[in-house]
Please model this.
Amino acid sequence: MAQYTLTIANGTVLEEKGHFFKALPFSIVTSRERFEIKFERGEKNSVVFKIISQKKVLAECHHPDYIPEFNGDPTRNATNGVPPPESIPELFHPIMQAFAYLAITPTKDYLAYFHPITGTHKTQHSLQIIQTISTKTIISY
Model:
């Protein structure tokens, strides 16, 4: 049973139910792909936010206090390891739009660019965010 669901279609929120908790795993589902997003403990009081598709880690966000720094992608070419939002590959656009809606973007620039409703990014993706919670989820965290 999902404890949080969000459905966005072309920049319009169709449905939002429950409460999102940033430290628990969740899924982002698009018409083409399903991404699993998992938090893991990092080094020195940080958390690693892994973006996984088909059991392969596509990218990692290392961050303290739920403010990620996008890294792990060839576009990592800007200062502080956070590339400009315009340089993020198309594959990651729906993920960044979901992160922006959930307020877990790397910078305010990402929020302004990728937010699925108010962002300046020209393509608004349709996506669904699903977060379930179970005893197994809590114990593994």
Summary: Helices lie at 93-101, 108-114, 135-140. Residues 2-140 form one domain. The chain has one domain: 2-140.
